[in-house]
Write a structure and sequence with these properties.
The protein is of the alpha+beta class. Helix content is 58%, strand content 13%. Strand 2 and strand 3 form a beta hairpin.
Length: 199
């Protein structure tokens, strides 16, 4: 039988954080775009933006060298002549494309943005799936265990109150909890769910 992966858990909180961070990163990267436009005095295009993301400082240098007043002189000499300190620019552009990729940003015209594709990639990044038949078996077992615990939580709690620190009362120390399931408390109600596989 062909293996079919099962969704174990979708981390909604993580996704919300990633989305917020991505929007902040997009704003900062677009500000850098505008700084480069001003420095190079060029009309931006999507193609030039892609080159900037892929090649960063080297792309800017290639464009600047075409505008240097002294083509045969060194870069340093021309920077001095133009009154430009390249160090902050180099630091600003370092890892620009990597930062964009890390936040799943994509070019939308001449700006990077959180697109529908970005959101799909983030959601997948926050989704935990089984990777083989053995994990499927563990996941099915964990679901059955969670179902039993959720249905009988009141009785388990009574037992814990009568025999504190024994058996189910020491639930967090169960090895099985670290391996299969996790407990969460919401509105005074304890709920159990399977945990994502260790990676």
């Amino acid at each position: 039988m062909e293996f079919k992966s099962k969704l174990i858990y979708y981390d909604e909180s993580k996704n919300a954080t990633m989305l917020s961070n991505a929007n902040i990163a997009a704003e900062k990267i677009n500000e850098v775009f505008e700084q480069v436009d001003s420095l190079l005095e060029i009309k931006p295009t999507k193609e030039k933006r892609q080159q900037l993301l892929e090649n960063g400082y080297s792309y800017v240098m290639d464009e600047l060298r075409e505008k240097f007043p002294f083509p045969k002189a060194t870069d340093e000499f021309n920077f001095n002549a133009l009154g430009i300190d390249p160090t902050p620019l180099k630091e600003t552009l370092k890892g620009l494309g990597i930062k964009s990729s890390e936040h799943f940003l994509h070019l939308d015209g001449i700006k990077v943005a959180v697109t529908d594709k970005s959101k799909e990639q983030m959601k997948e990044n926050c989704s935990y799936w089984t990777r083989n038949d053995e994990e499927n078996q563990k996941y099915d077992f964990a679901n059955k265990l969670c179902e039993f615990l959720n249905q009988n939580n009141a009785e388990i709690q009574k037992y814990c109150n009568i025999f504190p620190g024994q058996g189910a009362g020491d639930r967090n120390s169960w090895a099985i909890f670290n391996e299969f399931i996790v407990a969460s408390n919401k509105d005074g109600q304890t709920k159990y769910r399977p945990v994502p596989p260790k990676v």
